[in-house]
Design brief:
Structural class of chain B: mainly alpha
Number of strands of chain A: 4
Order of helices and strands of chain A: HEEHHEHE
Shape of chain A: elongated
Structural class of chain A: alpha+beta
Order of helices and strands of chain B: HHHHHHHHHHHHHHEEHH
Radius of gyration of chain B: 24 Å
Oligomer: heterodimer
Largest sheet of chain B: 2 strands, antiparallel
Distance between the termini of chain A: 78 Å
Number of strands of chain B: 2
Largest interface: A-B, 62 and 75 residues
C-alpha cells in the first residue's frame, strides 16, 4: 500500500465518521436542549426558549431597601430608583425572580443559593442593609402607560456583610 | 445500528452539494481561521473585565468550571481566562492541528461557562461553542485540497455547523409555537397570535430592566405595527433549519435573522451581537449558497451607440429563485400561472426562460 492509498483510506474513514457524527450531534443537541426546557440549561446545550409566553398578567419580584447601615430609610428605596443597586442588570432581575419563585414554592435549598448571590452581587457593597422581597403583578401595557401595579411584600431580610444574619 | 446510520445519512442534503471543488473547500478553511480570530478577539476583549467581575462578585461555577472549587475563585478566574485566550490563539496559528482546535473548543466552553457562572445563563457564546465543537472534525487543509473524500468531509462539517446554528433558531421558534398552544388552551387573552404580542414582550422587557430603547415606546404605543414584524421573526425562526437545505435561502435567511436581531435590539435593548457576527461569518460567504436571484435575472446582449457590444442584467419578471424555495409559501409560488416574456433577441417560438 502506497502512502497515497493510506491517506485516501484514512480520509474515507474520516468522511464516514463525519457523515454519521454530525447529524447525530444535531439530534443530541435538540434532545438535550428540549429536555431542559422547563429548567436551567446545561451549557453548551439550550432549549432556546426565549420569549415563549406573551406576558398577560406577569407576577414578578423586585427588591426594596428599608434600612441602610442600621438607619431606617423613610420612605423605603426601590431597586428601580437606582440609588442603592443597579436596576438595569438582567442578571439581577433573573436572580431576584428565581429567588422569589423558589421561596414561594418552598424550595429552600435553591432559595438559599439565590439569596447568597443576591447578597453578594446585588445589594450595596460592604453596607448593612435591610431589604424586602416584593411581588409585583400587573398588565405590562397598563403599567407602561400608567405605572399601575399590585404589590405584595413576600419577606423581609437583614444583611450585614461583617456579621451575616438572615432572620 | 445500521438503521440508525441510514436515518442519519438521510438527514444530509443531496450528495452533489458536497462535491469537493477546491474553491469551496478552500473557503471553508478561510472561514474557520477567521472564526478562531473572532474567538481570540472575544477572549482578549473580555479578559480584564472578567477578572474584575470575578474579584467583585460571588460565582456559582457551571460544570465546565467544576475545578474552580479547588482552585479558588480569583486564581481559577485567571486560569479560565488564560485557557479561553490560548485555545483560539493556537487554533488560529495552527488551524491544521486537531489538538489546537480541541483546545479552542475547550477554551470557548470555559469562557462561556465563566460568563454564565454569576447566576444567569446568557446565550452570547453558545453558538460559538457549538461551532467550535464541530470544527474540531475538519480534516487538515492539505488533505482536503488533495483527497476528494477529505474535501467532502470538510464541506460536510461546515454544513453541519451551519445547520446546528439554524437548528437553535428553529428550536426557539418551535418553543414559541408550543408556548402559544399552551396559552390558547388555558384561555389567555393575549397570545403569539394577538396583534399586541410584540408590544407586550417589549413593555415587559423594558420594565424589567428599567431601560428605554430607540423603538420600544413606539412599538408599545402602536402594537398593530409590531405584529407583522413579530410573526415574520417567528416564521424565520421556525423554518431556519429548512433554509439549511435550500441553498438559495442560505444568505437571505442569515440576513433575515441578522435583521431580526437588530430589530430586537432596537425595540427591547437585547443585544445578540455575537450571533450577528457568527451568522455573517458562516453564511455571508457560505460555500453552498447559490444566488437567490439566479432565476430572476437574465443577461441580455446590448450594443452601445459607439457600436461596442456588451451585456446587461435585466429583470425578466419570471417568478423563481428563492421565492420557490420559501417554506410554506414556495408551493403557492410554484403554482402561480407565470407568463414568460420573450427576450428581444430570441427566435420566434423559442422559450425565453433563463
Amino acid at each position: 500500500m502506497t502512502p497515497e492509498d493510506a491517506t485516501a483510506g484514512r480520509c474515507r474513514r474520516h468522511l464516514r465518521l463525519v457523515t454519521f457524527l454530525v447529524p447525530l450531534w444535531l439530534v443530541v443537541y435538540f434532545a438535550v436542549g428540549y429536555s431542559r426546557i422547563r429548567t436551567t440549561d446545561i451549557v453548551p446545550f439550550s432549549a432556546w426558549a426565549l420569549f415563549v409566553f406573551v406576558p398577560n398578567q406577569p407576577s414578578v419580584y423586585t427588591l426594596t431597601f428599608h434600612m441602610l447601615d442600621g438607619a431606617p430609610l423613610e420612605p423605603p428605596v426601590s431597586l428601580e430608583s437606582g440609588e442603592l443597586a443597579d436596576p438595569h442588570s438582567i442578571t439581577s432581575s433573573y436572580l431576584i425572580n428565581h429567588f422569589g419563585r423558589a421561596l414561594e414554592s418552598g424550595d429552600t435549598a435553591a432559595a438559599r443559593g439565590y439569596q447568597r448571590l443576591i447578597e453578594a452581587n446585588i445589594l450595596p457593597r460592604n453596607r448593612a442593609v435591610g431589604w424586602e422581597l416584593v411581588n409585583l403583578s400587573y398588565d405590562p401595557l397598563e403599567r407602561w402607560a400608567t405605572g399601575k401595579t399590585e404589590t405584595r411584600t413576600v419577606a423581609r431580610f437583614e444583611y450585614n456583610p461583617k456579621s451575616r444574619r438572615v432572620p | 445500528m445500521r438503521d440508525m446510520r441510514t436515518i442519519l445519512k438521510a438527514a444530509w442534503p443531496a450528495p452533489e452539494v458536497f462535491a469537493p471543488e477546491p474553491v469551496r473547500v478552500e473557503r471553508v478553511f478561510v472561514i474557520a481561521q477567521v472564526f478562531y480570530a473572532c474567538l481570540l478577539f472575544f477572549a482578549c476583549q473580555g479578559f480584564v473585565g472578567s477578572l474584575n467581575l470575578a474579584a467583585a462578585n460571588r460565582m456559582e461555577p457551571l460544570w465546565p468550571l467544576y475545578w474552580m472549587r479547588w482552585s479558588g475563585q480569583e486564581s481559577g478566574a485567571i486560569a479560565a481566562q488564560l485557557l479561553y485566550l490560548c485555545g483560539p490563539l493556537l487554533a488560529l496559528w495552527k488551524p491544521d492541528s486537531r489538538v489546537a482546535r480541541v483546545l479552542a473548543f475547550v477554551g470557548c466552553l470555559t469562557g462561556m461557562a465563566f460568563d454564565n457562572s454569576f447566576g444567569k445563563v446568557n446565550h452570547h457564546l453558545h453558538l460559538w461553542a457549538m461551532t467550535a465543537f464541530l470544527l474540531v472534525f475538519l480534516p487538515s487543509r492539505r488533505d482536503a485540497l488533495r483527497v476528494p473524500a477529505a474535501g467532502e468531509a470538510a464541506l460536510r462539517v461546515f454544513w453541519g455547523a451551519q445547520a446546528a446554528i439554524l437548528l437553535t433558531y428553529t428550536m426557539s421558534g418551535v418553543a414559541k409555537l408550543l408556548g402559544a398552544a399552551v396559552q390558547v388552551l388555558r384561555g389567555d387573552a393575549s397570545t403569539l397570535f394577538s396583534y399586541d404580542a410584540l408590544a407586550r414582550h417589549t413593555a415587559e422587557r423594558l420594565l424589567m430592566t428599567h431601560e428605554t430603547s430607540l423603538l420600544g415606546a413606539w412599538v408599545i404605543n402602536h402594537p398593530l405595527w409590531g405584529a407583522p414584524a413579530f410573526w415574520g421573526a417567528v416564521y424565520l425562526e421556525v423554518f431556519a433549519l429548512a433554509a439549511a437545505y435550500r441553498l438559495s435561502l442560505h444568505r437571505l435567511w442569515a440576513l433575515g435573522l441578522v435583521l431580526m436581531h437588530i430589530g430586537i435590539f432596537l425595540t427591547m435593548n437585547v443585544t445578540f451581537s455575537h450571533s450577528i457576527l457568527l451568522l455573517g461569518l458562516m453564511f455571508a460567504a457560505s460555500p453552498f449558497a447559490t444566488s437567490p436571484f439566479t432565476a430572476l435575472v437574465s443577461t441580455a446582449p446590448v450594443m452601445s451607440t459607439s457600436g461596442e457590444t456588451g451585456s446587461r442584467s435585466r429583470w425578466n419578471f419570471e417568478v423563481g429563485g428563492f421565492l420557490r424555495d420559501l417554506p410554506l409559501f414556495g408551493p403557492f409560488v410554484k403554482a402561480l400561472p407565470v407568463r414568460r416574456r420573450a427576450r428581444p433577441d430570441a427566435e420566434p417560438g423559442t422559450d425565453a426562460g433563463p
